[in-house]
Amino acid sequence: MTDTRAIALIAAAAIVTALIRFLPFLLLGGRRKTPEYITYLGKVLPYAIMGMLVVYCLRGVTPLVWPHGLPELLAVAAVAGLHLWRRNTLLSIAGGTVCYMVLIQFIFK
User: Fold this and answer.
1) Do the beta carbons of residue 95 and residue 78 sit within 8 Å?
2) Phi-psi region for residue 69, left (φ > 0), alpha (ψ -120 to 50) or beta?
3) Domain limits, the chain
4) What digits encode the pLDDT tens for the residues 1-35?
5) Angle at 59 (CA atoms; ends 54, 64), nearest 5 degrees
6) SS3 labels along the chain
7) How confident is the model at residue 52 (pLDDT cuts 50, 70, 90)?
């Protein structure tokens, strides 16, 4: 790839990234109050996205074949337990991921 083409690609990526970041401010104009539908979406979307992630992560579980979904079940329990204990989403997801990887790499080979 030539230097000019690389520079053009980097510039295009930078412009698109900046545009995506500034677009909400440009669309909403100088309003001080956030519109109600944006506030509503901010309340309901995190739960909807988490539900979709759970379905996506557990879509390939086969309960009739060894290990019968046991690593996934234990990892989900770890996520729920960590979240109830610490109320920290990042810790919950990271802890569940580490738990799942340890289970499938070392215990349920």
Assistant:
1) yes
2) left
3) 1-32, 35-107
4) 689 999 999 999 999 999 999 988 888 777 778 88
5) 125
6) CCHHHHHHHHHHHHHHHHHHHHHHHHHHCCCCCCCHHHHHHHHHHHHHHHHHHHHHHHCCCCCCCCCCCHHHHHHHHHHHHHHHHHCCHHHHHHHHHHHHHHHHHHHCC
7) very high
